Every structure is written in C-alpha cells, then in structure tokens.
Amino acid sequence: MTTAEDVNSWVQRYQNAWITNDPDDVADLFTEDATYEFVPNDPEAAQGRDEIVAQWMDSQDSPETWKFDFEFLGFVKDDTAIVRGVTEYLDGSPTYDNLWFIRLADDGRATHFTEWYHPREGTGEEEDDDVD
Q1: What's CA 60's distance to the chain center, in Å?
Q2: Collapsing DSSP states into helix, strand and coil, what is residue 9?
Q3: What is the pLDDT of residues 17-38, one digit of tens each?
C-alpha cells in the first residue's frame, strides 16, 4: 500500500529530475507502461516511459528559472495520491498553482500521473487561458 512517505519521496525525486534534466532520473520516476497527462483526460498524454522521457527532454526548464513547493493532501484511492504545488518561475513567466494525481506502483514508480496547472492572475507575463 502506498504511504504519504512514498508520495513525498516520489515528488522529491521528481524535483531532482526537474533540476538535473537527466533522462535516467526522469525514467526512474515511471513504470515502463506509465501514462503522463499534462491536463486531465489529455488526448495527447505521453504513453510509456520512453515517450514520457522524450517529451520531458523536449520541454526542459532550466533549474535556475523556477522554485517549487508542494504539500501532500491525501489519497483518493489506496495507490493514488493528491499533491498540491506552487511553481514560481523566476524569468517573468507566471506562477502556477498545481494539482497532481499520482498513482504509484509497489516499487515507488508512477504508473499514472495527471497534472492540473493554472497561472495565478497578476503574476508574470499575461497569457491566454491556453497553457502549454
């Protein structure tokens, strides 16, 4: 059964991968058949670890351009956790409120990851409602 400690560990590893942008660090987060949804019910979700890593490498953030804080909120099922985060970009981009659903396998890797993110009004450059 997944615990809060498992979830916190996974998010810390996610942050490390975000900092290093190392394909091995990213791959270590996900099972071979994982799904990564950039928005709920994403028709263009990354399917499989190799595709997740490839998309991550195509859209890297430099580690000096952001700060991220998170809070584990609880479980919606035994293996699916909810995490609330705040991503503050330091390069003039908006600050984002994040909500993540993370389903973890017994080995601590994610089988399914869904993120919701929304720019905070009045932060960074004004953008359309369509967030990339």
Answers
A1: 12
A2: helix
A3: 999 999 999 999 999 999 999 9
Token pair in block for residue 66: 């952001």
* DSSP structural state of residue 112: E
- Tens of pLDDT, residue by residue over 71-100, are 999 998 888 999 999 999 998 899 999 999
How distant is the alpha carbon of residue 115 from its chain centre?
Answer: 6
Give dist(CA 119, CA 104) in Å, integer. 27
Sign, CA torsion 67/61/91/99: negative
The CATH number linked to 85 is: 3.10.450.50
Domain boundaries, position 75: 4-119
The number of domains in the chain is 1
Write down the pTM of the prediction. Answer: 0.88
Helix (H) or strand (E) segment spanning residue 53: helix 49-58
